[in-house]
Amino acid sequence: SQGYEPGKFPRHMLPSQPFWERLMHQVTGSFEATPLTTVTNATQADSNITQQLGFENGTVKIERKEFGIPMPETPEELRARFRVLTNGWLMTKMRFPGNPKLATLSDAMFLRYVEFLLGSTVWGMVAKGPGGVPIATPHIEHVLEYDHAVRGFAAACINVNCDFQSAFEKGLKDDDTRKLHLDIPFTHLSLI
Predict the structure, then answer these.
(1) What is the pLDDT of residue 129?
(2) What is the CA radius of gyration of the chain?
(3) CA pair distance 146, 152, nearest whole angstrom
(4) If DSSP codes are grouped into helix, strand and coil, which group holds residue 53?
(5) Which of 58, 78, 112, 177 has the fewest Cβ atoms within 10 Å of its own Cβ atom?
(6) pLDDT for position 10
(7) From CA 85, how far away is CA 69, in angstroms rounded?
(8) Residue 37 CA neighbour count, 13 Å, CB half
């Protein structure tokens, strides 16, 4: 077991090599809303068996293929997944320090975003019936669908030269994204 070392992240908070390479490819290509099933950490990669061995110029080359994991099911799992996503983007920002699209990307930005998703206006939202009695709250699947839609909206904005923070702010303010991917599916649930 490793003890705490200041300035060093534990492996379960660091992106796996295949996931980090996916983020790097987005910076040099096109941004997308990365599926949370592909946000994998270094510890998961250690136990992943999708490695390819090959020989290149007389040396052994180990290549890890991208792999998937189940969607988060609890607030703690969602926070942990976003910690890896955040660290992956921060590492990518360090790799491309002059990229203006990444300039506003920060740990605080992602932390605010995750707390928003888990807060009273998304996952903590409550539909009330007669007499103010709570009748429904969103399921994690509603939260995950809305998150993916917001990040998809943000990616589209980034692809047309918006910076990360502005893109996320636009995604969160977009009424259609919220209605189509959170409010309507949740309202439908509360009517059942």
Answers:
(1) 85
(2) 19
(3) 10
(4) strand
(5) 58
(6) 85
(7) 14
(8) 6
Q: What is the pLDDT of residues 40-59, one digit of tens each?
A: 998 887 666 555 555 667 66
Spatial CB neighbours of 20, under 8 Å, sequence gap ≥ 6: 88, 91, 92
DSSP 155: H
Measured distance CA(164)–CA(104) in Å, rounded: 6
51 membership: H or E segment, kind and range: strand 51-56
What's the rounded Cα separation, in Å, for the pair 139 and 189? Answer: 9
Residue with tokens 């206006």: 121
Token pair recorded at residue 44: 């998961």
Distance CA 171, CA 185 (A): 18
pLDDT tens for each residue of 72-86: 999 999 999 999 999
Alpha-carbon dihedral sign for residues 15, 112, 174, 179: positive
Residue type, 2: Q
Beta bridge partners of residue 55, listed in sequence order: 60
Distances (CA, A) of 138 to 39, 68, 94, 119, 169: 23, 25, 36, 11, 22
Phi, psi (deg, nearest 5) at residue 61? -120, 125
Residue appearing with tokens 């660091």 = 14
Q: What residues have CB less than 8 Å from 43, skipping those under 6 apart? A: 11, 12
